[in-house]
Amino acid sequence: MGTQETHHGTHSTAPGSPPAPAPLPVPVTAAGRAALDAIVTRPSAALVALDFDGTLAPIVENPEDARAHPGAVPALAALAPRVAAVAVVTGRPAEVAVRNGGFAGVEGLAHLAVLGHYGAERWDARTGALTAPAPHPGVAAVRAELPAVLAAAGDRPGIWIEEKGGRAVAVHTRRADDPQAAFDALRAPLTDLAARHGLIVEPGRMVLELRPPGMDKGVALLEHVRETGAGSVLYAGDDLGDLPAFAAVEKLRSDGVPGLLVCSGSTEVGELAARADLVVPGPDGVVELLASLAARMAD
Ligand SMILES: O=P(O)(O)OC[C@H]1O[C@H](O[C@H]2O[C@H](CO)[C@@H](O)[C@H](O)[C@H]2O)[C@H](O)[C@@H](O)[C@@H]1O
Asked: Which residue positions does the secretion signal occupy (predicted)?
């Protein structure tokens, strides 16, 4: 295949000209190398699907401050017209990802789909329409009981509750004195609270989200592959919530559909890196990969 090993970073050209895109990296697995080859040789069949936080947007202390990497939208807009479909698959409400990502009204992204709340919601760039299920009644019940449960668990300073449009609620520990200890202490009581109201706990990077069952990023990705008729897939993620999407790509591969698993490298989620074909250095590396793909497809 025509890919080249690369060291991520600046790629010099003649003085005054824009930096050349980095050469494509080489996946560490044979399945990954075959998938990358399929994607670059037949881009019109490829679905490129990416997680938002930690993949397209750098991790920050306050989730409300998370924004797409400055190179993410330009790279996606360069890539999208060359492939079958581009999707953002996120635990965020779709409209939050669209706003914080700056995905609306972008030339080149007319066919972007944002699959929010782990695929329960969907926003289409072409129409601007948002589809969402009715809120699960357990979310309001959990929200009402949450202060008492947090108090019983010790009310640690720095714990922050993210309201997710009435469709889920997330308890963040990143700003606690000891984020991992706070996460560990809250996991059992929040799992119990969720279960009493028909919800599940979705653990993530210093966050425990209480949300309705029945949907995950793997189900969402497989539905999108079916809908778009994609013949190859690239999926990039950084967190535990991306594991079902990784499993979906592995399933597609066993059915003969080439799939490339990309981990937006983090020290917090080693399991994802261990299962990936390619680990890139966070959103910087994801953006570099997207830009390199777009450049290669333009050749
Ligand atoms: O599926 P994703 O797009 O990756 O969303 C997963 C969760 O991401 C957000 O939390 C994470 O990012 C925050 C901002 O960088 C960070 O402060 C937090 O520690 C991370 O867990 C978001 O706040 C959650 O609602 C998403 O479910």
From this structure: none
ipTM: 0.99
Q: Which of 53, 172, 210 to mutate to test the pocket of ligand 1 (most atoms within 8 A of CB)?
A: 53
Gap from CA of 205 to ligand 1 centroid (Å): 7
Q: Is 192 a catalytic residue?
A: no
Give CA–CA dist 250/122, Å, rounded.
24
Whether 101 and 126 share a structural domain: yes
The model's pLDDT over 50-85, given as tens digits with 9 standing for 90+, comes to 999 999 999 999 999 999 999 999 999 999 999 999
Q: Return the bridge partners of 114, or none.
A: 88, 123
Query: Is 0.90 topped by the overall pTM?
Result: yes
- pLDDT 10s digits, 195-254: 999 999 999 999 999 999 999 999 999 999 999 999 999 999 999 999 999 999 999 999
123 DSSP β-pair partners: 114, 130
Residues 63 and 42 in one domain: yes
Which residue segment(s) compose the domain that 161 sits in? 137-211
Does residue 93 have its Cβ closer than 6 Å to ligand 1? no
Atom 14, ligand 1: residue with shortest CA distance = 63
Among 211, 228, 247, residue at a domain's last position = 211
Verify whether ligand 1 is closer than 6 Å to residue 59 (CB atom): yes
